Amino acid sequence: MADEKTEHSEHEEHEPESPEIHFEPIVKLSLVEIKTMEEDEDVLLSLRAKLFRYDHESEPKEWKERGTGDCKILKHKKTGLARILMRRDKTLKICANHYIYPTMELKPNCGSDRAWVWSTTADFADEECKEEVLAIRFANAENAQKFKTQFDESAEEMKKVLRTKTVLEMCPNLISDGEAYAEKSDSEKTEKDTEKQTNGDGDGANELAGQLKGLKVQGTEIPPVDKTVEGSTE
Predict the structure, then answer these.
(1) Where would you find the membrane-spanning parts of this chain (predicted)?
(2) Domain chopping of the chain, boundaries
């Protein structure tokens, strides 16, 4: 028995080791930088929420869920333009993508202190301009109030931003009727310009909404059940 064990151990010692087999990949994949089009923007606010859209075409008309994820309010570093961007969890598919303009107003949904409703004339979540009525619900009233505060501040600031020459030069599509909307010096102001300014948020605000409808938002997508806005957020 001892001799058999000795022979067996000697056989194992002289047995050649298995060579490491290496296969070269048929296709070499190089690293590709993926841009989200958010690199030139500052994040003013980012809160988790659930988004809904009002479907006017369904019978009966109803609220439909668009997705759950982080809702961001972004501000472009150069132009100062502010927009809302929201992506769905996991898929990162865009469910809201539009500029915030002065005519927008957040309204409570059914008296809830953590849900808001607003309308936009130009949302690009589906890569094409659409008028949408949207509703958003947060986990608590505190987050809902933070969203409203930043939303209102951005809308107020956009009144000035939309008149700057930088925006007009970088975004020529912002002008829908061919007239310059930039602030002019006192010597250049015409009677028509003065009349627009005195109208305040009336005709001037409507004009801003029309101009924004012609401006495409950066950051299009990478790669239904009847519900009310009131309820719990995931």
Answers:
(1) none
(2) 41-213
pLDDT tens column, 174-187 = 543 333 333 333 44
- CA–CA distance, 161 with 147 (Å, rounded to integer): 20
What was the pLDDT predicted at 163?
82
Instruction: Report yes or no: 220 and 127 within 8 Å, Cβ to Cβ.
Output: yes
Taking alpha carbons only, the member of 85, 78, 75 closest to residue 43 is: 75
- Strands 107-108 and 62-76 turn out to be unpaired
CA atoms of 184 and 153, how far apart (whole Å): 24
Tens digits of residue pLDDT in 118-136? 999 999 998 889 999 999 9
Under CATH, which architecture does the 41-213 domain have? Roll (2.30)
